[in-house]
Design goal:
single chain, 306 residues, alpha/beta, TIM Barrel, eight-stranded parallel barrel, two-stranded antiparallel sheet, 12 strands, 40% helix, 17% strand, globular
């Protein structure tokens, strides 16, 4: 059964597992788009109500595919939380000299949201996130942009993605509305958020951490993988033992490991395989122990914690 919780301080009630739409369009062939629709409907039928997009996913085709599902079943719109992100600017603009870059300027973000809404064929985004920090961002300009988007009715709530605690604090200090989420990489390979204050800040400010790539280092290699063969063997052995104990698959143990944290981490499930989308919910029912949480951390690190 899917668990839900309130994305405070908003009125949004989200499924604890979030469906990630990065891969739903595949190579944009008819076959892959059909597969993507099947995946979306499998997620909805399984109780996922929160769908994560970005303007760059599938070069915009992930959003247009999702729009087709909404057109086929318009009654779904009011039942879903639709999130999208922007701020990574591609090179195909009017200035051939400009590199691919981050851009939080008012004009670019306003145009980006208009493009997102057009591709999704909806009037309002439930949540809009800044995708990756723009090193040149002016927090007051971003605050003004957010205010314009909210006043226009184009965005209900706001959040960030891949922000460090200092960047969250800087932006929140000038905003008139709360940041609802911070979407960051959290997995057995990348535990930076446990160490750099990100998850502590989420608890302090009431921000919900959303974990992208939650199965990195287990189901697939994590970004910038630094695990040695010995590291992987230790983790694999501990996961196998815990999977046997909890009567589940090793990758479901990893989800339980993330869900155990008191910051209420919400993992993103990005598979386009219906069985994997459905089976991810089993992690929600695992009564995962503190002892096993630290045993897995010890296996990851190769040494005892204390």
């Amino acid at each position: 059964m899917m668990k839900t919780f309130n994305l405070l301080p908003s009125e949004l009630t989200s499924s604890r597992l979030i469906y990630g739409c990065m891969r739903i369009a595949g190579n944009n062939s008819i076959e892959d788009r059909k597969k993507g629709k099947i995946a979306i409907r499998a997620a909805i039928d399984s109780g996922y109500n929160h769908f994560d997009h970005a303007d760059i996913y599938g070069n915009g085709q992930s959003e247009t595919l999702f729009a087709e599902v909404l057109k086929e079943s318009p009654e779904l719109r009011d039942k879903l939380i639709i999130t999208s992100k922007a701020g990574i600017r591609p090179t195909n603009d009017d200035n051939p000299y400009a590199p691919k870059r981050y851009d939080f300027s008012e004009g670019y973000l306003l145009n980006s949201v208009d493009g997102i809404l057009s591709r999704l064929n909806i009037d309002t985004l439930d949540m809009f996130l800044l995708h990756r920090p723009d090193y040149l961002f002016n927090p007051h300009e971003v605050a003004e942009t957010f205010a314009l988007l909210k006043a226009s009715g184009k965005v209900k709530h706001f959040g960030v993605s891949n922000f460090k605690p200092s960047q969250v604090s800087l932006l929140q200090s000038v905003l008139s509305m709360p940041l609802v989420v911070n979407q960051v990489e959290i997995n057995i390979h990348n535990i930076d958020t446990l160490l750099d204050g990100t998850l502590d800040q989420c608890q302090e400010f009431g921000i919900t951490p959303i974990a992208w790539c939650p199965l990195g280092g287990v189901v697939y290699s994590a970004w910038g993988n630094t695990f040695s063969a010995n590291d992987e063997q230790r983790i694999e052995a501990e996961l196998a033992q815990q999977a046997q104990k909890y009567h589940c698959a090793p990758w479901q143990v990893i989800l339980a490991w993330l869900l155990k944290h008191p910051a209420n981490i919400c993992p993103i499930i990005g598979s386009t395989t219906p069985e994997r989308i459905i089976d991810a919910k089993k992690a929600l029912a695992i009564n995962y122990s503190r002892e096993d949480w630290y045993r897995l951390l010890e296996a990851r690190n190769g040494y005892a914690q204390p």
